[in-house]
Amino acid sequence: MSFHAGVFAKTFVTVLVIMDPVGSVPVFLGLVGEETPARQHQAAWQAAALAGGVVLAFALFGQALLRLLGIGLPALQVAGGLLLGLVALELFNPREEAAPRPERNVALVPLGTPLLAGPGAIVTAMFYIRSAGGVGGILSVVAALVAVILVTFGCLRFASVIGRLLGANGISVLTRLLGLLVTAIGVQLVAGGVLALTRR
């Protein structure tokens, strides 16, 4: 059993790009930017912890769970795309214009999942675990996933600093642009999943 630096590096870079914690900063600020610093810090670790738990759980047990439930990866992809559509609706609607609704923890949904721990990150983690080859490879993949979560927490933890650099108008514009991108990603996920299902 030995640590595989190549597997670690490949997994780290790929999952980090897919999760895109820097790109999630405007979303984070758009949802909890008006909260107290203590609440923002709490939301940062909650979102990162949930994302890490979901990705690690699916990486280690996802294949068995999907087989048990009779669910294929394309179906998971379609479901994730639909969830991202709901996330995009929240980004397009400013908080002050939204209708009153019960309090809920936005650090868990939509930040932790499906924005950070989305179908792309989940499927990629499952793929690398499946192709790791041996205990050393699996441990290398798990270490890379943990490292990605730590980077994600760091980006969210200091999101307010980035927010001050961008300003309120910059955050507003970026949030809505990101909403458009999230919509496009959701549509692409649904289209890809449907296409995969029809090819069966």
Quote the average pLDDT: 81
Instruction: Give the termini distance in whole angstroms.
Output: 38 Å
| Unreliable stretches | 95-102
- Could you give the order of the helices and strands? HHHHHHHH
Gross geometry: globular
Give a quick account of the main beta sheet: strands, pairing sense, barrel closure.
none
From the alpha-carbon coordinates, what is the Rg to the nearest angstrom?
Answer: 17 Å
Total beta-strand segments: 0
Question: TL;DR of this structure?
Answer:
The protein has 200 residues and is mainly alpha-helical. The chain contains 8 helices and no strands.
Provide a descriptive summary of the structure in words.
The chain has eight helices and no strands. It has one domain. It has helices at residues 5-19, 25-32, 37-69, 73-92, 107-116, 119-130, 134-157, 159-198. By secondary structure, it is mainly α. The longest helix has 40 residues, at 159-198. It starts with a helix and ends with a helix. The model is unreliable at 95-102 (pLDDT under 50).
